Amino acid sequence: MTEAFKQPHYFQERIARQPHLGVLFVAEHTDDTATRVAGAAFLRMLPAEEWELREHLRNVPILSHLQVAPQRRRQGVASAIMDAAEDYARAKGRARIALGVTLTNAAARRLYANRQYVEWDFGPVNAMVVEWDEAGRKHFGVERCQIMVKALPAPATAGFGKRPQMRLVLA
Predict the structure, then answer these.
(1) Which is higher by pLDDT, 166 or 87?
(2) How far apart, in whole angstroms, are the C-alpha atoms of residue 53 and residue 160?
(3) How far apart are the C-alpha atoms of 125 and 56, rounded to whole Å?
(4) 87, 155 contact by CB (below 8 A)
(5) What span, in angstroms and rounded, lies between the C-alpha atoms of 44 and 89?
(6) Which residue pairs from 142-147 have beta carbons closer than 8 angstroms and sit at least 24 positions apart in sequence?
(7) Sign of the alpha-carbon dihedral angle for 14, 15, 18, 23
(8) Pairing state of beta strands 96-102 and 62-68?
(9) E strands of 1-132, at which residues?
(10) DSSP code string of 119-156
(11) Residue 5's pLDDT is what?
């Protein structure tokens, strides 16, 4: 798992910090030869690092680092991961969930809007970004992001509808 998306240090750190910091959701797909990672996302349950989020989204979990393997895109993987993260947050008593999306990622913004995420009223923020170099050293930066928030209604009783053929696991 930690080799997925060529970011082993990110995933190793997130796995090591579970469940205190949050939960890593992983979608796996099994084909004829092997089980592979189809996508992943991290749901941060502790207060955000950015002061704007701590101030305006107190006690709201933040979904971050949502990634889908290129060969699995547009197959419902991101939606399945988001469903699982939203269900988890709801089960923990949270009424809302939030995420940040870069200002240039129009496709992701459309996905989130279609899932009833709305842009918050406070404008873009400088989100903290953590990256690792090839030697495993951590580097910090910022990325301008639009924050989107979704109200988490009570779960529907009719079921979840069509989901891709994959298994979601908590790493």
Answers:
(1) 87
(2) 30
(3) 12
(4) yes
(5) 10
(6) 143/102, 144/102, 144/103, 145/100, 145/101, 145/102, 145/103, 146/100, 146/101, 146/102, 146/103, 146/109, 146/119, 147/52, 147/53, 147/57, 147/98, 147/99, 147/100, 147/119, 147/120, 147/122
(7) positive
(8) parallel
(9) 22-30, 35-44, 62-68, 96-102, 118-119, 125-132
(10) E-TT--EEEEEEEE-TT--EEEEEEEEEEEEEE-PPPP
(11) 59
55-62: long-range contacts, CB 8 A cutoff, minimum separation 24:
56/120, 56/122, 57/96, 57/98, 57/120, 57/147, 57/149, 59/94, 60/94, 60/96, 60/97, 60/98, 60/149, 61/22, 61/85, 61/89, 61/92, 61/94, 61/97, 61/98, 62/97, 62/98, 62/99, 62/100
Q: What is the number of H-type helices and E-type strands within the chain?
A: 4, 8
Strand partners, 46: none
pLDDT 10s digits, 13-46: 666 666 678 888 888 888 778 778 888 898 999 9
Q: Model-level pTM?
A: 0.81
Please say whether the beta carbons of 55 and 46 come within 8 A.
Answer: no
Evaluate if residue 169 carries a pLDDT over 60.
no
